[in-house]
Write a structure and sequence with these properties.
Layout (H helix, E strand, L loop, with lengths): L2 H18 L24 H15 L16 H10 L5
Helix pairs in contact: 1-2, 1-3
Length: 90
């Protein structure tokens, strides 16, 4: 696994949120330990679904519908690690 794949996934998530989903993340407020949902990046369930669809398309992974809601409790780093584990490709 290339080290830069994790960086690429992280940057894709933050850029997609800010530019494509109109959910800007203030500079420095989204660390690896920031939850994707409440108390962190603050995505609601519809935003989580939209983000997972974009991640599926970009990185060639699949998420069962049952695993989308738990993403809200994941941190940014856990989400990145989950994508890598699912076989994400650049």
């Amino acid at each position: 696994m290339p080290v830069n794949l994790e960086t690429e996934i992280r940057e894709f998530v933050l850029t997609t949120l800010a530019k494509d989903m109109n959910h800007p993340v203030p500079e420095g407020s989204a660390g690896d330990d920031s939850p994707m949902g409440a108390g962190g990046i603050d995505l609601d369930s519809l935003s989580l679904i939209e983000l997972t669809i974009r991640l599926e398309q970009r990185f060639g992974v699949e998420f069962p519908e049952t695993s989308i809601e738990p993403f809200g409790a994941m941190t940014l780093q856990e989400l990145v690690a989950d994508l890598v584990q699912r076989g994400a490709s650049a």
